[in-house]
Design a protein that fits this description.
alpha+beta, Alpha-Beta Plaits, two-stranded antiparallel ribbon, 21% strand, globular, binds iron/sulfur cluster
């Protein structure tokens, strides 16, 4: 089973607002690190080159929090109760 196939088995219950927030001006090095570390590929640039986190697909693994310091992420918390990820195995 591929990673993408495995990810589609999860159940996502996204909250109305993001639980991860980015600093408005990230360096290219910070952006590259976030793009590389997120297993779900949620850090993506828009057409203007601005990077956003597509929090709705977050796996709540905390990798971005571990590798990025407060200079890159202004907020990281778990989604509110009743929202977030439900893993499905098998
Ligand atoms: S917590 Fe994990 S899945 Fe969620 S944005 Fe950070 S690296 Fe990606």
């Amino acid at each position: 089973m591929s990673v993408n196939e495995s990810l589609t088995r999860n159940c996502y219950h996204p909250a109305g607002e993001a639980h991860i927030a980015l600093q408005p001006s990230l360096s290219e090095e910070q952006i590259a690190l976030l793009e590389k570390i997120c297993p779900a590929g949620l850090f993506q640039r828009d057409a203007a080159g601005k990077v956003d986190v597509h929090f709705q697909g977050c796996l709540e693994c905390g990798c971005c929090r571990l590798v990025a310091d407060d200079a890159a992420l202004t907020e990281w918390r778990y989604p509110p109760s009743g929202c977030g990820l439900t893993l499905r195995f098998g």
